[in-house]
Amino acid sequence: MADRNDLEFTYSLIDRIFRLSLGELADFSGAKYDGDFSLSLEQAQRRKHDYVAEQIGIEPGRRVLDLGCGWGPLLAFIRERDADGVGVTLSSAQAAACRRHGLDVHIADARRVDRESFGDFDAIASLGAFEHFCSPADYEADRQDEVYRRLFERIATAIPVDGRLYLQTMVFGRNMIPYEEISIDAPRDSDAWYLALMGRQFPGSWLPFGKEQIVSAAEPSLRLVSAVSGRLDYIETIKQWRRRFAEPSLRKRLLKLRLVPRWLTSSDFRLAFTSGVSANSVCFERELLDHYRLVFERAR
Ligand SMILES: C[S@@+](CC[C@H](N)C(=O)[O-])C[C@H]1O[C@@H](n2cnc3c(N)ncnc32)[C@H](O)[C@@H]1O
User: Fold this and answer.
1) Which pick of 74, 85, 132, 212 has the fewest CB atoms within 10 Å?
2) For residue 69, how far is its CA from the centre of ligand 1 (angstroms)?
3) Using CA atoms, how far apart are residues 8 and 95, in angstroms rounded to an integer?
């Protein structure tokens, strides 16, 4: 899986730039436009939260676990609904930001969470984090199914029979190329190059092959209730994020200046943050990637 260093690289290093661009309780997972791109990003993120609430039952008094909670947008929504949210993240900056907002967040590995960790929950949500649970090394060692199976077995113990899990994640799409072909030395603009660039932006992360791999790993403890693709919505989400990141701001400029030494000394940093292209967006357009909103129910 992506380890703590990987996630500190992706999320903590530019934590303040993220928050200045997307807001203090920044949502950093695909929004739910349902194809209606006249909605603002904020409206579409709100629609996503409402959908999660409807699917897993976020209601007063209920206890909900958020695996990979980021800067806490869903936890804040859970609080608004008079429910209790507990979040885990591996980014120290995210945990600190969440705590400043009074959210109950722990630096813990989502893959190790079970009933013993934080007690019983009525429901679980995980948005945009499953992407990090398996690494290229796990894939190469043929451990990908096992990583997912163990995660599902563990988290299922924390919810009652019929309790629900909302899982939103990117997956490899129908045009995914063989792993061996992925290379940063491939021609710029090729599928192989874009996928390698994504690997630099999200080091240590490797995606499931379609929703099918997830659904089969989740059985028998969790059965699928519904699956909806959010690929086109994700392309719009990224477009809106890029707009916000590009908005001029003196504070952002100063923060970026502080990262110049890193930029000068790390080619991975340059590729990850200043390549000038959104690898994810291109990969979604080419269907190298897809994106799913999955709802599961604990079966036994
Ligand atoms: C793309 S962000 C999504 C954040 C949030 N769910 C949202 O929708 O805005 C991915 C999150 O997953 C967390 N994450 C990734 N792997 C993790 C792991 N093994 N254990 C805990 N958190 C993890 C990261 O720290 C980050 O908070």
Assistant:
1) 212
2) 5
3) 11
